[in-house]
Design a protein that fits this description.
Blueprint (H helix, E strand, L loop, with lengths): L5 H4 L3 H13 L3 H14 L6 H11 L3 H14 L4 H13 L3 H14 L4 H14 L2 H14 L4 H13 L3 H14 L4 H14 L3 H14 L4 H13 L3 H25 L1
Length: 259
Amino acid sequence: MNTIPEKEEEKTAEEWFEEANSLGRAGKYIQAIESYRRVLEQDATFKDAHFFMGASYASIGEKSTAVQLYEKELELYPQNRGCLLSLAILYERQGRFHRAIEINKRIIYFSPQDKDAYYNIAVNHLKLGNRDKAVKYFEKAVEANKHDEEAWDHWAMIYFREESYQKTLEILNRAIEENPESGRLLYSKGAVLAKMGRDPEKELELYKKAVKYRHNDSRIWNNMGCALDELGYKNEAARAWWVAEKMERYAQSKKKRDL
């Protein structure tokens, strides 16, 4: 006996798709999966249905099923950038870095200036220990988008970890020229100067600028405290460290709430 309400039987694939999307946005992934299933019962080639169903499975921890659905979507729509990116990220999280790189290269094949794909390839090469390839792709990422401060910072930090501080500063100076209001990049430059043990006044100037744009970053406040302390401003240093500790407690509390 058919127990599906008549009203539900009358829904179109588009209506089921919209319902599924709403359920997914509300975090109701099991119900969303069922609605995507209804979409595909009516139209097995409905664009994004396999992709979004896969995303719902990924959200409940069923990664293998998610991969299968992403791959099915890409059989139907090989240029679906969102699906390609999601699949690459999933492979990266599974530690399948070579496969993640392959998927990101498919994105570049369809979109040669895709900054996210270049950045993701660089990150995966870094995880594989392929230092030179990571450098190459971080550079390509910033060529594709000079305002990608994350790519600039990761590229610079490769040299920082190698204690090639002048090269690190060279990259960060270029990055800050393109992104003068980037708290992240200003902080990184200050941290490099601190490591080199020179010019705490310049460090302090950089941290003061950085904190305008990343006020809640405890690392900036902490390093600012160190620079103030080195310059003999003990009270100001103590206050900066107090703020750093406060920001760190707030970040930890937020992380626990988000679990």
